[in-house]
Amino acid sequence: MHFFLLSFWLVACGERPPGASSGHVEVDTLTYRAELDTAKSRLQAGELDEVEILVRPLIKATEGKADLVKQRMHALSLMGQVHKRRSKLDSALICYEDVLLAASLTNDTFWIGSAWVNIGVAREIQGDYAGAQEAGLNALRWKEVQGDSLSLARVLHNLSVLYWRRDSIDQAVALLQRSLAIKRKKDPLSLVTGLNGLGVLLIDQARYDTAIVVLRESLKLVDELGGGVDRETQLSNLGLAFERDGRLDSAARYYQESLDHARASGNNEVGIRSLYGLGDVRRAQGRLSEARPLLDSSLAIATRIGSLEDMKEAHASLVILHEDLNDPESALEHFRAYHELNDSLMDESTRAEMSELQLRYDTEHKDRENAELRSTQEVALLRADRNRWIAIGIGVLALAIAVLAWAIGQRNKQRARQREAELEQEALRLQMDPHFLFNALNTIPGLYASGDPSTANDHVGHLSRFLRLVLETSRRRTIPLEQEVQLVEHYLRISANRRPGSFTWELKVMPYVQAERIAVPPMLIQPVVENAIEHGLSGLVSGHVSVLVDRAGSVLHIEVKDNGVGRSAAASRPSRLNGVSMGIDLVRKRIALFDRTTNMSEAVDVRDDLGADGSPRGTNVTIRLRVQMMSEHAAVGDRG
């Protein structure tokens, strides 16, 4: 199995400089802008020949014209992307360096930063990781000076790739999280690659199930955007996640689909990785005759385009294949080639150079911050005397505003407490469902009469612990997730004793969730589980309910699934028509009270699982909310 995770670099070919508009400009400038926009669209569609036809005349026509220097830099940048797509990296670097020279002469901070971004991408593909980091840090300096948050997010993303290659996973994750925080607010198109990058890091940490969820979300976002983003990278990384998890048939399907997309768009880098990924899967399946041409093709294409990283990974895969083919001489030959490439790509001197570059950047960044702070302090001292009375007036006004804000806040808090009390009463009515309590108590004599005292004692024990937990947690604003999980487990065991043999259940909490430290509102999961049993599985003789508690970064993910009759059939039953909607609405309201930043309509997702014939095969309820630790709620206390 190959040990290389797919690269997820971002380029800066089609960015428009801040302030660029279609105001009062010359006619030829408008014409150039229209042609450049057309070329950018053609590049996104993979039509490289058409892009070259458009931009080559523009490059020639703008040479030496000071009033068209921005158009010239845009055209050169697009031409560099064409060369990069065609794996002509030296030609691409010449274009990017011409952009950098022109931007430096005119002190255009936007194009200086963008040129460094593209230079870093090209050097990374060539295997020059120290050069790529140097370019990335230069891009970071200029984007910080410019205050361009979107481009800054892309630079942070690219730098995270280099730290990942250095096995500095913590630094890579930190940079990627900074990048994602910006993209979620301002750039959904680049969010695709951010999620893809997060999936790569999760694969590297062997969290395959979570990686698959994140990568599928990225792929879904690609389809929703409907253009401008390649699907092959997400598909290939999904293949890698399934391969690492041992699900080879699924891995092969995703690798093949990725390969087809890469060939159609001319994406050589992803095409190579899909080839040796599919080759590794075929080898693992024992289909050695199919694996060999795939791996040989990946090595040949990587050698042709000069991608040292892909050559290294192809050699690594061929070592294992030739060992399985009982061809030790070929295996040894590929093994030597692999180690030569590995040593040249990331040896100790390269690591040291990259560390020194980072240290130099950190030092310069700190010096710049200190200089800005000293300058700010000096200006403040010079203006202190002149602005003293203004400051007093502002202070009085601020005090008045603060008093007013406090009064309004107190009134709002009083209203919130009143509304919360109403919701708590509604929650308690649902929690202490007399129908459930009556049936649970009524089950006890039957269990003892049936001559099964062990089951009867178990039922009584879980019922008493369930009721105690309900009473203890209902008077708290927040409880540890661990207590909510215990309450759900008691409820499932009680329900299973009431209906012996009618359904099975599974409750799974992923070990890295840290349920004892995460805070949640009480009775968050239990109403959903009750809906699944009382409505979804009602009347079934072989039902199943599963509860999964997972975590992806700062998002808590809770999934409750059943194989019941579906929402429409459950809602049509006359006994408890509003039970499902009341329970879900209550969960949404409790989440809204618990975390004001979570969108109530998006916090709970309810959908039916459909069979091949389109009929319902159960219901899937997904709860998502921001992770908050119990330490954040330490001062909340009990409610009186």
Give a concise summary.
With 640 residues, the chain is of the alpha+beta class. The protein has 25 helices and seven strands. It has helices spanning 27-44, 48-61, 69-85, 89-106, 109-126, 129-146, 149-165, 169-186, 188-204, 208-225, 232-244, 248-265, 268-284, 288-305, 308-324, 328-345, 348-384, 388-431, 434-449, 453-473, 481-498, 526-536, 567-571, 579-594, 600-603, and strands at residues 479-480, 503-509, 519-520, 543-552, 555-562, 604-610, 616-626.
Summing up helix and strand content along with how strands pair, one would put the structural category as alpha+beta
Strand order of the largest sheet: 2-4-5-7-6
Radius of gyration: 30 Å
Low-confidence stretches: 1-9, 19-27, 635-640
Strand residue content: 5-15%
Count of helical segments? 25
Instruction: Please give the number of β-strands.
Output: 7
The major β-sheet equals: 5 strands, mixed
